[in-house]
Specification:
Layout: H1 7-10, H2 13-44, E1 67-74, E2 80-87, H3 93-99, E3 102-104, E4 112-115, H4 116-128, H5 133-146, H6 153-159
Parallel strand pairs: 1-4
Antiparallel strand pairs: 1-2, 3-4
Helix pairs in contact: 2-3, 4-5
Pfam families: CxC1
Domain CxC1-like cysteine cluster associated with KDZ transposases: 53-127
Protein name: CxC1-like cysteine cluster associated with KDZ transposases domain-containing protein
C-alpha cells in the first residue's frame, strides 16, 4: 500500500479528480467569505471580543427546509467545542461558520472548523518566524498587544525579542 503523498497515491485518477473539484469549490467559496470575515473582524475587533453566535444562514431567503450538521471547532486556547448548526443549501455553511469566527476545513459540509483568531495568530507567526526564540517572542508580544493587553514592565522584558538569548 503506497504512503500518502507518494507518487503512486498522488497520481491516482480519483485522487487527482478530487483535488481538482476541491480546489474549484474553494476558488468559488473564498470570495463569498470576505464580507462575513470583515464583519467578524469589525464586530469582534479582530477576535479581541466575543461576537454574536449566528446559527442560521446569513442570506437564506429560499424557504427550503434547513439541514443539520455537527461541527467541531478548534480554538486558540487548545479547546474543542462541538456545534450543532442548521444551514440551507442556498447559503453555504461556511458563511455561517465565518460569521461565528470559525473557518471551515472543507468547502462543502465541513465537520471541523478553526478559530479565526487562531488562524490570524498562525499567519502572524509566519510573518515573524525564524528558527529561534525571537520569532516566538515577537509573535506572542504582537498578538497580545493586538488583543488589547498591555504587558507589564517585567513581562515586556521577558517577551522582548532577544531578551532570552
Amino acid at each position: 500500500m503506497p504512503l500518502l503523498g507518494s507518487t503512486a497515491t498522488a497520481s491516482h485518477p480519483r485522487w487527482e479528480k478530487w483535488k481538482e473539484i476541491s480546489a474549484d469549490r474553494w476558488k468559488h467559496l473564498i470570495p463569498t467569505l470576505v464580507r462575513p470575515f470583515m464583519r467578524w473582524c469589525q464586530e469582534t475587533s479582530y477576535g479581541r471580543h466575543k461576537g454574536s453566535q449566528h446559527t442560521i444562514p446569513l442570506n437564506c431567503k429560499c424557504g427550503k427546509s434547513a439541514r443539520h450538521v455537527e461541527v467541531t471547532a478548534v480554538y486558540t486556547t487548545v479547546r474543542l467545542e462541538h456545534h450543532s448548526l442548521m444551514y440551507c443549501e442556498c447559503c453555504p455553511l461556511a458563511l455561517t461558520l465565518v460569521a461565528m469566527g470559525l473557518f471551515p476545513a472543507s468547502p462543502i459540509r465541513p465537520s471541523i472548523a478553526f478559530s479565526l483568531s487562531h488562524l490570524l495568530f498562525a499567519s502572524k507567526l509566519f510573518i515573524y518566524i525564524s528558527p529561534n526564540i525571537t520569532a516566538w517572542c515577537s509573535t506572542i508580544s504582537s498578538n497580545l498587544v493586538e488583543k488589547g493587553f498591555t504587558p507589564s514592565a517585567t513581562m515586556s522584558k521577558l517577551i522582548t525579542p532577544g531578551a532570552l538569548i
